[in-house]
Amino acid sequence: MFKKLLSSILLLFISLTFCAQQKYTIISGKIIDSLGIVKNANIININNNQGTFSNDEGLFRIFVAIGDSIQISSIQHVSQKIKVEKRIFEEKNIEIKLKLSTFILDEFELKRHNLSGRLGIDVKDVPKDKKDSLLRAVMDFSKIKMNAPQDEDYTDKRVRPQIVNVDPNSRFVGAGATASIPFKYSERLWALRKDFAFKKAFPYKLISELGDKFFFDDLKIPLDNYFHFLEYCNPLGIEQLHKKGKLLEVIKILKDESISYLKIIKNE
């Protein structure tokens, strides 16, 4: 009975993951200002915490869904927030123009000085700080005898500290009480939930580590086929290899499988 329940929950999680991935797409964008392109701008999807940077040509790619908010920030520019509407989601292309920041310095007064340029003479003419002089006088311990004998601290040995019982189970000793776990299969369910969370985050984590250039420029995977390509490679265990930290093996599988994958989608 429990195995059937786990199987049903697993199928539900996988279907939810598939549906969640289907609503996302990758859009391309370009960031400019009044002077030209903006390099190394920080682009973050606030809804799923996925981020990227604009390259030397001001271009970037990022996962979005309809209704997501994208925040663009850059040094010397005013941060801007854009909501992904249906038009942006369908066109999969956007150009963002940032405004240059204007920094205003506080006013200050420039006074003339009568310094001669000779340290020995100028030091005598510097006014003394009265507060500093008073503080120095108060903090002068030169006349205090540090070797003076001190009285021994007296502690009444009859006074003993209160015994604190820190064992939370001591009150149950001898009571014949038994502990009961309300959720017998909680460990398995938590493991299943953790695995589901990893499956959901895996596509976004992988593209953050390898970069969109690796998938879309080097492997030539179409933007709309990113999730489908990962599902195509999943039977070879790329998720488990990534979980074990074997990223080089994952890269090798992706490179090898991209050749056959591109042939298949081309024939379709």
**Globular, elongated, flat, extended or rod-shaped: what is the shape?**
elongated
Number of helices: 9
The chain-level mean pLDDT equals 77
Characterize the biggest β-sheet.
4 strands, mixed
**Helix-strand category:** alpha+beta
H/E element order? HEEEEEEEHEHHHHHHH
Radius of gyration over alpha carbons?
A: 34 Å
Sheet-strand content, in percent, reads 5-15%
* Percent helix range: 40-55%
Distance between the termini: 42 Å
3D structure, described in words:
The structure is a single chain. It is elongated and about 90 Å long. Strands 1, 2, 5 and 8 form a four-stranded mixed β-sheet that branches. A four-stranded antiparallel β-sheet has the order 4-3-6-7, with no helix packed on it. The chain is built from nine helices and eight strands. Mean pLDDT is 77; it is low at 10-16 and 18-22. It has helices at residues 2-22, 86-91, 119-125, 130-138, 186-210, 212-218, 226-233, 238-243, 247-267; strands spanning 25-33, 36-37, 42-45, 50-53, 59-64, 69-73, 80-83, 93-97. It has 268 residues and is an alpha+beta fold. 12% of the residues are buried. The protein is 41% helix and 15% strand.
